[in-house]
Amino acid sequence: MEFALFMQGPRGAAVTKAHAGAGRYVRQNGPPGRFGVIDLIVEPCAKASLGCFLSWEVAEEKIPLIYLDGVISGIKRVLADESCSADRLYDTRIRVVDGAFHETDSKLSCYYVATILAFRSALREAGIYTQPSPDA
Questions:
Q1: What is the pLDDT of residues 10-43, one digit of tens each?
Q2: Are 31 and 108 in contact (CB under 8 A)?
Q3: What does DSSP say about strands 2-5 and 52-56: parallel, antiparallel, or unpaired?
Q4: Which residue ranges does the record assign to the Translation elongation factor EFG/EF2 domain (predicted)?
Q5: How far apart are CA 6 and CA 43, in angstroms?
């Protein structure tokens, strides 16, 4: 499935090549746990509308579609961050390609956090997100 993401803001940017990002938010201290895993790719997209698109390519067994709102909210959060040099993307496709969920421990908020981690990583590689990685 592909969705158009409508973003506003004066600072637009586009990626010039594909960049992958992985987000792992797994906290298993006490019940209930927290579990959200997502892998995405940010790549150029030559569409006539010059917009940004989210391509949901992951199977329902890997990440149920009910977590899509958390993913979109995570993308918006990263673009609103001061460390991001763009508040909107154009000619760009964000592909959700893999992930995992836990029947009991996965929640919308877990995918929000996992998406933030994955999207920051991909945009950092693309030179659009300037905050250094916490591992660095």
A1: 878 888 899 999 999 988 776 677 889 999 999 9
A2: no
A3: antiparallel
A4: 12-127
A5: 17
